[in-house]
Specification:
Number of strands: 14
Shape: globular
Strand order of the largest sheet: 2-1-3-4-7-8
Number of helices: 14
Helix content: 40-55%
Oligomer: single chain
Length: 392
């Protein structure tokens, strides 16, 4: 099968960018794979970026059209279209009569900032289509950026009808699948295909510190984690990652007198693996509805118990005893669960073993490839997609 992957790489690399690279490596031995990409860090901003994001002005559509003509893909698999690609993949796939598969990594189908989280809390204001809320409620640090995303998403949904141009959607969690159904997407077009991670020799033997791995931004709840660490007696803990609130988090850690919380910064993949294998448990204190973070799967494959908040796709990851769930935004409850994992070796070993078993069964490259191929086979053997008739 000939698969053309389309993706706009983020300014700050994260799990989605890593997945695209891993997906190409996974498909490569069995399929013909090509990448059509743009880089968001090359955009200059202003009206040119707004036009490119909204209508795919400039060379993006013509370049993709030429790539489709030259490569002759059986399908196009789109990941992040924003802002650099805009609607190019949707429009050119339709023009060429090529099935389009899209992985839903976040909530941007209905939310301009993609998180459904703003002003420190969950938000569903834009689901019905009133995207001006992105400007009114400061969903971006810059008002012009908020206006650009609001206008672009409104145009894509109500003028270009991009939702109807996707043959099949892939969601990495049951939570995101169910959310899309609640938005009015037909269930036959939404497929759960869980993410995957590389597997190395690992045991559930508890390590020497707790660990957080991910972006340092407000919706991730790392400030709540620091509050909890202080309440839990300052156990050894490592925070791996970077982001816009790094400085304020360091200030908070100092104000709380945390001497055992170490900020490790952004680490290369091999160092991330080393940090995970030396850890005792993995914490995801997210305030927003996480979808299916790759870091959590990496921790499970390393035999680390998970401590997650109650929202989004996170509870799915501990449904068979792979860890603990705490209340979202509650530092006291989080501190109690941290103490439980810190004090109880048997709890850590049992949960870590369950995580290893689950990861080996569900989150392997081979399992992911089979499910991906099932979706590809379905879209290439089905008639062209029809428009949605029950959109929210």
């Amino acid at each position: 099968m000939r698969v053309l992957i389309a993706h706009s790489f983020y300014r700050r690399p994260g799990g989605e960018d890593r997945y695209v690279e891993q997906q190409m490596e996974l498909l490569g031995p069995k399929h013909e794979v090509a990448l059509f990409s743009r880089r968001n860090d090359e955009l200059s901003g202003g009206l040119s970026t707004a036009a490119r994001m909204t209508w795919s002005t400039g060379s993006d559509r013509s370049d993709l059209r030429e790539t489709i003509h030259r490569f002759q893909p059986d399908l196009i698999h789109l990941h992040n279209p924003y802002p650099a690609l805009g609607p190019a993949a949707h429009l050119e796939a339709q023009r060429a009569g090529v099935p389009l598969v899209m992985t839903v990594h976040n909530c941007r189908l209905r939310c301009p900032n993609g998180y459904m989280f703003t002003e420190g809390k969950l938000c569903h204001r834009c689901e019905g289509g009133n995207y001006s809320n992105a400007v009114l409620h400061h969903c971006f640090s810059d008002g012009k950026q908020a206006a650009t995303y609001a206008a672009s998403l409104w145009t894509h949904r109500f003028v270009l009808h991009l939702d109807a141009k996707v043959t099949a959607y892939i969601t990495p969690s049951q939570f995101m699948h169910d959310r899309m159904i609640s938005w009015g997407f037909p269930g036959a077009r939404v497929n759960v295909v869980r993410n995957f991670t590389d597997h190395h020799e690992a045991t559930a033997e508890p390590g020497r510190y707790g660990i957080y791995l991910g972006r340092l931004s407000s919706e991730k709840g790392v400030d709540v984690l620091l509050e909890a660490l202080a309440l839990a007696g300052d156990p050894p803990f490592r925070i791996c990652g970077d982001g816009p609130v790094m400085s304020s988090l360091k200030d908070l850690a100092a104000a709380k007198g945390l001497r055992n919380a170490r900020f490790m910064g952004q680490l290369p993949a091999d160092e991330v693996a080393d940090q995970l294998h030396g850890s005792r448990f993995f914490v995801l204190p997210s305030l927003w509805d996480e979808n299916a973070p790759l870091a959590a799967l990496e921790a499970m494959a390393a035999g680390r118990p998970l401590l997650v908040t109650e929202g989004g796709g996170l509870p799915e990851l501990v449904a068979s005893g792979e860890g603990l769930i705490c209340r979202r935004g509650d530092p006291r409850d989080l501190a109690d669960k941290i103490r439980s994992l810190w004090d109880d070796d048997d709890l850590c070993v049992n949960a870590g073993t369950a995580a290893l078993v689950r990861a080996a069964a569900e989150f392997t490259p081979a399992a992911h490839l089979r499910r991906l191929e099932d979706v590809y086979q379905k879209v290439t053997s089905s008639p062209p997609v029809e428009g949605m008739d029950n959109e929210v």
